[in-house]
Every structure is written in C-alpha cells, then in structure tokens.
# Entry
Amino acid sequence: MSDSIFSKIIKREIPATIRYEDDDFIVIDDIHPAAPVHVLIIPKKPYESLEAVDLDDAVFHAKLLQTARQVAKDLCIADNYKLFMNVGKEVQDILHLHLHLMGGYEGGKGHFNFNEN
# Structure
C-alpha cells in the first residue's frame, strides 16, 4: 500500500490539527466537517480498510472503540456523538482505515434518516 495522506500526517509530512495521539492511533480534525465536532480516528498501522484487520485481533478492535470513547470525553461530547466508518474501495475516499467521530449536535440534529431516498 502506498503512503496515504493519513500516513503522511502520521509522519508529520503534512500538517493537521491533532486532538489525540498514542502509540497506536492519531486523531485529527476532519477538513470537511459534517458535524459541530468531527474528528477522524486513524490507526498508525496502515490498514487499507476494516476488512484488512484480522477478525481475531480483539485488542485492536477494543482499542479503537476505547480511543473513540476517550476522545469523545476529551472533546466534551461523550453523551452526544456517533461513529461511522466506510469500508472498501467503492466507498472509502482514502484507503487507510479511519473511524469518523461526530458529535456536539443540538436540538435533535444529526440523526440519519434511513427512510429518505
């Protein structure tokens, strides 16, 4: 897999607003936010998509969700957020696994309506 924009951010070759970082993940602001708070949780290991992560890698899966919960708490949206991830070349804009954390909604905004066409 060639270097993605996220790999370049991790290596500090491209600037980004970093909200959290540890040995396994970096969390940055989304440059096209779709919510009052919209960050991307990106593993430092360059998995192309969720399907590239071994199903038996419970530590990775747990750490991803733990990181999301911690970042939501740090950003003061722990009671008002949603998570989503695109998986696969047909829907991913960047072929490097990343989880969207979106929150900070007011007045019931931010719900998906799956009945709209």
User: Anything to note?
Assistant: The domain at 5-103 is CATH 3.30.428.10 (HIT family, subunit A). The CA atoms of residues 36 and 74 lie 15 Å apart. The two ends are 35 Å apart (CA to CA). The chain has one domain: 5-103.
